[in-house]
Structures are given as structure tokens and as C-alpha cells.
Design a protein that fits this description.
Layout: H1 3-10, H2 16-52, H3 55-58, H4 71-90, H5 97-102, H6 104-131, H7 138-163, H8 167-181, H9 183-197, H10 211-217, H11 219-235, H12 239-268
The structure holds protoporphyrin IX containing FE (HEM).
Length: 274
């Protein structure tokens, strides 16, 4: 057997490195589509209501929304839902390589904006969560609090790595930040997925207090674990690990699309008039 024949034989059919980055790009495109549906809902529900001065309409689909006489709580709620638009719209733009490489100044300014909005939204949301009686179980409050605290922590770590010009670290922290910032979106997707796999039965889900509600609220933790696996497969030389992580990421991309479809029907699309 000649050397070249041996090389051809040992070369894998699919390059694991390329498979992994293809899977990552596929996941990202699915997430961008799902987040687009969420951001359109935020604009249609909260911006349209604000411009019309129709604050009652904003209470549809939330637990408390506006409470008569609660000036601070209402201000925090309004700023939270209005900032939610900007954070959801600006985040995905940071991860498009063509935008990052060709429009560096835009990437830097959008990054500063994203980070500032992330810190403002999460600290405001934490205050709002403890200012008002908590809804659902204590476990739900804990999961949401952890999400808010991690947004602040990952945001600071992404900024620190960028200032020290450690760009590989910066990218990793920015990806983790993106996952935790998307915690609320994952929460809705979790319900969409649960609805899909239980054909609408959704056992264990009641008033945000059932075991299924806590599991669904923790969807962002599963996503964060998936990201860690992806990042570790990227760093390690093992082709098998890269292929396994690529398969997991492609499955996750499919789950994101299916869940976004059902979440859109459950939460984001206007309900037809009776
Ligand atoms: C940073 C990313 C976040 C985004 C994009 C976001 C988005 C939203 C949106 C759109 C709503 C209105 C409900 C809806 O239409 O779905 C909302 C409500 C709310 N969010 Fe967030 N949120 C984020 C983070 C958080 C965090 C980390 C917490 C908790 C610490 C939190 C606590 C709340 C609370 C308490 C409400 C009001 C619910 C009510 O009055 O019933 N949010 N959020």
C-alpha cells in the first residue's frame, strides 16, 4: 500500500472541526429565527401599547404588570419590557462573523450597548422580583435570581477579557452571557417544547409552581451546559468528541426551531378574536 493510499484511508469522510463549526452556525441561525419572533412580540405588545398610552393592554400575558400606586414597581416593569427589545435585538448581531470582522467599530459600540442594557435589565429585574410578592414557587424565584446574577457576572467577565485583549476568553464569556441573557426566551421555548412532547397535556405544570414549571424554567441551565460541552469539544483534539458535540448541537438547533414554533403559538402570536 502506498503512503498516499494510507493517508486517503485514514482521512475521515467529514472533517470533525468543520462539522462542529457548521453545527454551531446552524444552532445560531435557529436561535436568531426564534429570537426574532420574541422581539416582534415585545415590539407589538409593549412598544405599540406605550405609544398608544394603552397600559392595560401591557398587563395581558404577565402576572402583575402595572399595579395601581406602585410607582417604583411600575417604572421598573415598563423599563424592563422596553429594554428587553433592545437586548434581544442587539445580541445576535454580535455573533455574526461577517458583521464582527467587517464592521469592527459597530461590533465594539453594539457590544458596549448590549452589555450596558444587560446590566440595567438584569439589575432592574432583580429589584422588581424582590419588590413584589414572588409568583410561582420559591424554586422558580431561585432559578430566575440565578439567571439575573449570572448575567451581571458573565457581563463583567466578558468586559474584563476584552479590556485585557484576551479575545478567545472574551468570546467564550460573551457566548455564556448570550445564553443567560436569553434565559427568559429559553423559558418560553421550554414551554413550547413541553407542549410539543406531551401533545398539549403538560402534566406537572400548574400556576408556575409544578415540577414541570421548574424544569422548564431551568431550560437556560441545560443550554449553558450544552455550550460548555461545545466549547470543550472545540478546545480538545478528539475528533470523536467534536462529532458528538456537533450531533448534539444539530439536535439542539432542531429543538429550538420546533420549540420556537410552539412558543410563538402559545405566547407571541395574537390570539384570534372569539
Ligand atoms: C435580560 C434578559 C431578559 C429579557 C429579554 C426579559 C424579558 C421580559 C419580558 C418580555 C417580559 C414581559 C413578559 C412577556 O411578554 O413575555 C418580562 C417580564 C418580567 N421579567 Fe424579564 N427579561 C429578562 C431578564 C429577567 C430576569 C433575569 C429576571 C429576574 C431576575 C426577570 C424578571 C421579570 C419579571 C419579574 C417580569 C414581570 C412579570 C410580571 O409582572 O408578571 N427578567 N421580562
Amino acid at each position: 500500500m502506498t503512503d498516499s493510499a494510507a493517508t486517503t484511508r485514514s482521512r475521515p469522510l467529514i472533517d470533525p472541526r468543520k462539522a462542529l463549526s457548521f453545527a454551531g452556525a446552524l444552532w445560531f441561525v435557529s436561535a436568531a429565527i426564534g429570537q426574532l419572533a420574541f422581539v416582534i412580540h415585545i415590539a407589538a405588545q409593549y412598544y405599540v401599547s406605550t405609544f398608544r398610552g394603552d397600559f392595560e393592554r401591557m398587563d395581558e400575558g404577565v402576572i402583575y404588570g402595572f399595579i395601581s400606586g406602585d410607582l417604583l414597581g411600575n417604572a421598573l416593569f415598563l423599563s424592563h419590557v422596553l429594554l428587553a427589545f433592545w437586548i434581544t435585538a442587539s445580541g445576535p448581531l454580535q455573533f455574526i462573523p461577517q458583521v464582527r470582522n467587517r464592521f469592527r467599530t459597530f461590533h465594539r459600540w453594539n457590544g458596549r450597548f448590549y452589555l450596558t442594557v444587560a446590566l440595567l435589565t438584569s439589575s432592574g429585574a432583580l429589584i422588581l422580583s424582590y419588590l413584589r410578592p414572588h409568583f410561582g414557587s420559591l424554586a422558580l424565584l431561585f432559578v430566575n435570581t440565578a439567571d439575573g446574577v449570572l448575567i451581571i457576572a458573565f457581563g463583567c467577565l466578558a468586559l474584563r477579557a476584552a479590556l485585557k485583549r484576551r479575545f478567545d476568553d472574551h468570546k467564550r464569556w460573551a457566548l455564556r452571557l448570550f445564553i443567560v441573557v436569553s434565559g427568559v426566551w429559553f423559558f418560553r421555548l421550554g414551554y413550547g417544547f413541553y407542549f410539543f412532547i406531551t401533545a398539549g397535556e403538560m402534566p406537572g405544570s400548574h400556576n408556575l409552581s409544578g415540577p414541570a414549571d421548574i424544569a422548564v424554567a431551568s431550560t437556560w441551565i441545560v443550554a449553558l451546559a450544552g455550550l460548555e460541552l461545545y466549547l470543550s469539544a472545540q478546545r480538545r483534539p478528539s475528533g470523536g468528541l467534536k462529532m458528538a458535540a456537533a450531533a448534539m448541537t444539530i439536535a439542539a438547533a432542531g429543538a429550538v426551531l420546533v420549540s420556537s414554533y410552539f412558543a410563538a403559538h402559545m405566547f407571541w402570536l395574537p390570539t384570534p378574536a372569539a
